[in-house]
Amino acid sequence: MTTAKPPAKAKQNTGAWVGGIILGLFVLCCVGSSLFNQDSGGTAVPAPAVDERTDTVPLLAQATASQGICYGWWLEESFRSPVSVGSNLGDGVAVEEDDRCPRWVQVRARITYTAESSESSDSAFITVTGSGDFSSADLSAVQAGLARFGLHEDVFVDDPGWAICRAAVALPLLVAETGAAPPAATPTADPAAVTAPLPDAGSDFLRDRWGSLLAAAGLLLVAALLITVGFVQRGRQRAAPAGRFRGTS
Q1: Which of 159, 215, 226, 245 gives a 20 to 30 Å CA spacing to 62?
Q2: Where are the transmembrane segments (predicted)?
Q3: Is 64 found in the same domain as 177?
Q4: Same-domain status, 114 and 140
Q5: Is residue 129 part of a domain?
Q6: Which residues contact 94 (CB under 8 A, 6 or more apart)?
Q7: Is residue 154 located within the same domain as residue 213?
């Protein structure tokens, strides 16, 4: 009795099945290498959230109205353009060199995020600058006073957007403490909104890796489909010869 030969497509289907397995293993290797060996893509400094900026501007405007001093913030990333600027004049408007602000005080923060493969640590450099009528001693006292509000370097590193807005809101009080200006009027905004706790900074490991994870998930899905098709077709191939043998018996 002549043994029936498997159909010509058997080799092709087997190749698809094996190809799916190889593709899946390749994707797993690439994802592992990407997530654990690549430099962190999260070196970009995030700007303050929209609600943080919109809540800060009116508080600074109230202080300016009562003290006659413009207040603002300047957040920047090392060797790059400013990430966020703002003041009592509005979001995106700096007080420095603005004719509407003959007297001004500004908190400035420069944030540096390093890659995970680097031996250097993330850092923040905070300064308080002002117009010429403020002495360097007064500005230094204001800068030192930020620590009393918990606004130290680690906080700026963890959440620079939140920290720069809170520091700007603290400026009127600290300037008044130096005697360079009268006390500012009590803000009419909800105090809870000003002293909200620092939010969770999240995981550095997942920072800016969503694109890679989504691409990897898509490739894994394709590999799973190929493997499933291969198993189904392989089962049909085994069932076909058995049917022929039963028909010839």
Answers
A1: 159
A2: 15-36, 210-232
A3: yes
A4: yes
A5: yes
A6: 72, 74, 85, 86, 87, 106
A7: no
The residue type of 109 is A
pTM: 0.60
Same domain, 85 and 158: yes
| Tokens at 242, concatenated | 């058995």
The neighbour count for residue 35, using CB atoms within 10 Å, is 14
pLDDT of 1-51, one tens digit each?
A: 555 555 555 555 555 555 556 655 555 555 444 444 444 446 789 999 999
Please name the amino acid found at residue 227: I
User: With helix as H, strand as E and coil as C, how does the chain read?
Assistant: CCCCCCCCHHHHHHHHHHHHHHHHHHHHHHHHHHHHHCCCCCCCCCCCCHHHHHHHHHHHHHHHHHHCCEEEEEEEECCCCEEEEEECCEECCCCCCCCCCCCEEEEEEEEECCCCCCCCCCEEEEEEEECCCCCHHHHHHHHHHHHHHCCCHHHHHHCHHHHHHHHHHHHHHHHHHCCCCCCCCCCCCCHHHHCCCCCCCCCCCCCCCHHHHHHHHHHHHHHHHHHHHHHHHHHHHHHHHHHHHHHHC
Q: 159 and 86 in one domain?
A: yes
Residue type, 223: A
* Mean of pLDDT over the chain: 78
Q: Are residues 56 and 20 in the same domain?
A: no
Residue-wise pLDDT for 81-118, tens only, equals: 899 999 999 999 999 989 999 999 999 999 999 887 77
Higher pLDDT, 55 or 118: 55
Domain that holds residue 111: 50-194
Is residue 26 a part of any domain in this protein? yes
Number of structural domains the chain divides into: 2
